[in-house]
Specification:
The protein has 192 residues and is an alpha+beta fold. The protein is built from four helices and ten strands. The strands form two sheets. Strands 1, 2, 3, 5, 6, 7, 8 and 10 form an eight-stranded antiparallel β-sheet that branches.
Length: 192
């Protein structure tokens, strides 16, 4: 199975807590016939139907070391096909993060650093390419982890690209990345 039991539990808990974002799920289904499960806590911030790209974002307040702390997490889904090779995927990730993620001006473009491209992972008969790394914004003290999947490959091209990120200064990001990972993998369950 593409989605592990832990990831299923994470996404089920989110849906139970916040409900399902049926509007977002319908938008994704219309654009590419996907069966992703999007918790109601994520809102659509950008929907670019021309470029077949949707951005989702969520902010939450938490306590860390006795102080208020804020966590921003989000993900981008692109249904624009691309070449299924690591260099092309990394360049596409950099370009899409620079173009679409909120709070990034043309002067201070978001750039990705320390990208580690993991080998292609096989799930059933389809390949899913996973990229993990760190992002930062030049000229700002802002950065964090990101996770990307390119999949539903055929003829050397991927059909879907998912990029998720977490911005949570001084807070462990592991739980939040598992959440992003679960949502991302749910996008690829319908690959044939």
């Amino acid at each position: 199975d593409i989605v592990t039991k832990t990831q299923k539990r994470v996404i089920d808990d989110l849906v139970r807590s916040y409900g399902r974002n049926e509007q977002a799920e319908n938008l994704l289904a219309r654009m590419a016939g996907t069966n992703a499960r999007i918790p109601g806590s994520y809102t659509v911030t950008v929907s670019d139907t021309f470029h077949k790209t949707i951005i989702f974002r969520r902010e939450e307040k938490t306590r860390y070391a006795g102080m208020d702390a804020y966590i921003t997490k989000g993900f981008l889904v692109s249904f624009h096909p691309g070449k299924a090779d690591s260099t092309h995927i990394v360049n596409t990730i950099d370009s899409l993060m620079s173009q679409y993620f909120e709070g990034v001006s043309p002067v201070d473009r978001m750039k990705i650093s320390k990208v580690k491209v993991l080998p292609e992972v096989k799930f059933t008969q389809e390949g899913l390419i996973e990229v993990r790394g760190f992002w930062f914004i030049e000229n700002e003290f802002r950065g964090g982890s990101f996770l990307a999947y390119a999949g539903c490959t055929s003829g050397g091209e991927y059909k879907k690209l998912f990029i998720g990120y977490v911005f949570a200064p001084n807070i462990s990001k592991r739980r939040h990345l598992i959440e992003i990972e679960a949502i991302g993998k749910s996008l690829f369950l319908d690959c044939k």
